[in-house]
Design goal:
Blueprint lengths: L7 H5 L18 H31 L4 H15 L5 E9 L2 E10 L4 E11 L9 E8 L4 E5 L3 E2 L4 E8 L3 E10 L5 E10 L2
Length: about 190
């Protein structure tokens, strides 16, 4: 004979509990920081290597190679003997006008030279004159006079076409005309090297 559901025997047996799924295994807490520490260490090592490479390339790009440095050291004494531009001041006083002419001869050696002449008044300011002539003579070789053929270039007189063929002590004659009737010629000796 059957028993009724919910009878006394049903209360005595425990109800079956459905099985619970197994909880997933939690990652090991100490393992995650170890990976991060290793990653940080390798990134820092790469950054350090990159900085060292940049520093070395900067230093090396600013230095001459050994062969070029030796050639530069040998070439340096050769340029020490060349003169710089020759600058000569020629004072003048004529017809109530006084001042000076500053004549720059560049490079001041045999061959082609450029000449710039600036006329200054007595107070040191720039002055304008209607005419300025320069001529060069080498008395020891009986050469000259060679006219520099200066052109007024607005503020100074100049030319790029003066050729002095030989080295020696040249006489430079500057003729300054300050008016229609007043002019003066002054001679200075300059040294031209070969």
């Amino acid at each position: 004979v059957g028993e009724k559901a919910g009878g006394p025997s049903a209360a005595s047996e425990p109800a079956p509990v459905p099985p619970q799924p197994a909880a997933p295994a939690a990652p090991a807490a100490p393992a995650a920081p170890a990976y991060r520490y290793g990653l940080r260490r390798s990134v820092l090592a790469e950054v350090a290597v990159g900085v060292v490479v940049l520093v070395l390339s900067t230093v090396l790009s600013g230095t001459l190679p050994g062969r070029a440095q030796a050639e530069a050291a040998e070439a340096a004494p050769a340029t020490d003997g060349l003169p710089a531009a020759s600058v000569t001041n020629v004072p003048f006083a004529v017809g109530g006008a006084t001042g000076k002419v500053q004549i720059t001869l560049d490079p001041g050696r045999t061959g082609d030279n450029s000449v710039q002449a600036i006329v200054y008044s007595a107070d040191g300011g720039l002055a304008t004159v209607p005419e300025l002539r320069l001529s060069f003579t080498l008395p020891s070789q009986q050469i000259g006079p060679i006219d520099a053929q200066l052109k007024n270039r607005g503020g100074y007189w100049g030319t790029n076409d003066l050729t002095l063929p030989l080295a020696g002590d040249w006489r430079m004659k500057a003729t300054v005309r300050v008016s229609d009737i007043d002019q003066i010629s002054v001679t200075k000796t300059i040294r031209i090297v070969g």
